[in-house]
Amino acid sequence: MSLRARVVIVGGGVIGTSVAWHLARAGVRDVVLVERDELAAGSTSKAAGGVRAQFSDELNIRLGARSLEAFGSFEREVGQDIGLHRVGYLFLLATPEQVASFEAGVRLQNSLGVPSRLITPREARRLCPLITTDGLLAAAYSPDDGHCTPEAVVHGYARAARALGVRVLRHTEVTGIDLRGGTVTGVRTSLGPIATDTVVCAAGAWSRPVGAMAGVDLPVQPLRRQIAVTGPVPEPPARLPMTIDFTTSLYFHREGPGLLLGMSDPDERPGFATGTHDRWLPRLTEAMRRRAPALLDLPRTGGWAGLYEDTPDHNALIGEAPTVSRFLYATGFSGHGFLQGPAVGEVIRDLYLGRAPFLDVGPLSAERFAADAPRPEANLV
Questions:
Q1: Mean pLDDT computed over every residue of the chain
Q2: What Gene3D superfamilies does this protein map onto (predicted)?
Q3: Cβ-Cβ contacts under 8 Å for 28 (sequence gap 6 or more)
Q4: Which end of the chain is more exposed for a tag (fewer CB within 10 A), N or C?
Q5: Model pTM score
Q6: CA angle in degrees (0–180, nearest 5) for 147-151-154
């Protein structure tokens, strides 16, 4: 196989397919998306599916809010039902420091049009009867947030992009990126070469080696995160929010008749392992006992593990390499890639076309670490 493309996108998850659709919709022809496995087979299909704009960083708030708008119109614009449930996000806060941090976050979110607010523990329990309020000081809630189905988003974007002329190569591995004098000239794949002058790296947890093929350092490391699924919830609330105990990071939301739940594991070490294990269960059980004891009565019926794509400050890498023309990247979302996918596709489209995106993503450039200008995000799950 020998192809020519105006743009080659590496990675067939939510970021890659969003970029492909946005480019094609803007009239960019000869776009090729390369995925070494099935579409959404990486981190996207393992995501919890939460969508929100409740962040501490203005850029993340705006990326989240813009994506929420896109998720809300997804079926009309893209032609795919994504199972969107606008049930809100509920952060449970148990220390004065957490309350102060979220108070500041709510002020910033409100100034940007996000309808979040602080509520009392009693109000939080009305929204989520599965929790106990022992030790809670407050909660933060935004009704516009919620959750949807990650695979549906990817396949919706991919199908719509194909209809606009994008070529999607599955089971095709990128083996190298060719440069001449600091300019991209092609991409080597397991199916043959693709001549191109533009590469977009949307390879998630695998982005660092892809960047290295072009001499670009993308400081991303993979970290396993596990999710469990429970049996049916007796008398479930009609609109159970995505609920997060901020102290332990325990989170859960409705998944069919049961719940999808998870939390971070401080004993996990970076690596590409995605097998499930039971070492996290004692800590998970203790978190449920302290904050949501009703969950202890639900049988665990399944689960899986996927990879976060972490950066040193737990914030995304979005931009274009200054030393290689033209190597663009959107990666390192540290757990927020799915929910920011629609807006990021729009941003990369505009960077490729040479026009100003709806927000300045310069502070999210990978060069921020060399410049000692990290941009930390506080509202991590």
A1: 97
A2: D-Amino Acid Oxidase, subunit A, domain 2 (3.30.9.10), FAD/NAD(P)-binding domain (3.50.50.60)
A3: 6, 7, 349, 352, 353
A4: N
A5: 0.97
A6: 105
